[in-house]
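Re: the 360-residue chain
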Amino acid sequence: MIKKIKKLTNIKKILSHKVGNAPGSLEYVGESKISKAQIVLRSYSERDFNEENIEDAKTIKNKIIEDRVNWIECTGLNDTQTIHEIGSAFDVHSMLLEDILNTQHLPKFEESESYNAIIIKAFVPDAEGNFRRNHICLVQSGNTVIHFQDFETEILKNKIERIKQSKGRARKLNSDYLFYILLDAFVDTYYLIFADINERISELEEQLLESAGDNLMEDIHSLKRELNSIRKNLFPLGEALNNIINDEHQFIAEDNLIFFRDIKDHVNQLVEFYVMYNENIKALVDLNNSNLNNNINAVMKTLTIIATIFIPLTFIAGLYGMNFNYMPELQWQYGYFGALGVMVIVGGLMVLYMKRKKWF
């Protein structure tokens, strides 16, 4: 609960900066601490591949080569000046730039006369095995794809190497295929976090079955919140892909739409994963509640047995605790031990009777 309150406080603090700002105002909404955006320009054709770091974003437009595919990777969204300069160079609308700088923005697809753009979240595992959400926007403008991301990851390392070594189709096709490659890589990260959730669900199930006395409701609700966070990004992503597939686009060739349909198939499968894991979490809640109820029933059963055994013993003790002058055995030398013996025999007979009835 404390973690949840801290998280809500952080989101409230982040979003409060946007209140009162004019539409299209460029203000970073997120937690990244990168002071200076890092820009890498990769350009390639079927013949060769070049890669260079760009120090000044104002010069990026002049380095674009018309007869090659150009891939601009910009890391560090809190450097709003650099984002603005790149956006201005490629006529990216200020409203889209505002969405790029807002790391809380949901996935969407946007099209204009000069570009296609999609906002997506990628789930990146860190060294501790936790997942961070990387806010990403891909802008395809002519033969250029601009890749904005909040922080650097290793997701595209293999993709870059394959393009360098001219493996696959990338070097033979245009920027729309690069647009597909990057989008596909980020969608694939959803499989990683779903695999992690599946493993955690299995671990919680084993704990509940092996240690029936444990109350794991807090862990289950934490997993539920994480799954809801994925759903919040997964369903809008499906709608964005529908917009790509169902409309005609000047920057995406009709022959290449089949690749985007393949991504949509992946998203449909991920939605099925979400539904399945959501049902599994509901089953965990039921199992946890069942364990708690069984524990309470076991305690009540034990207390009932103890109380039942002591009822006749209390009767015997109460009977011989009456202060009448003429009662049998009051003057007997072994009366005290005789009464204790009767209590032990009665208690033992009751325990044997309950065992034969299989009450415990």
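Residues 1-9 have pLDDT under 50 and may be disordered.
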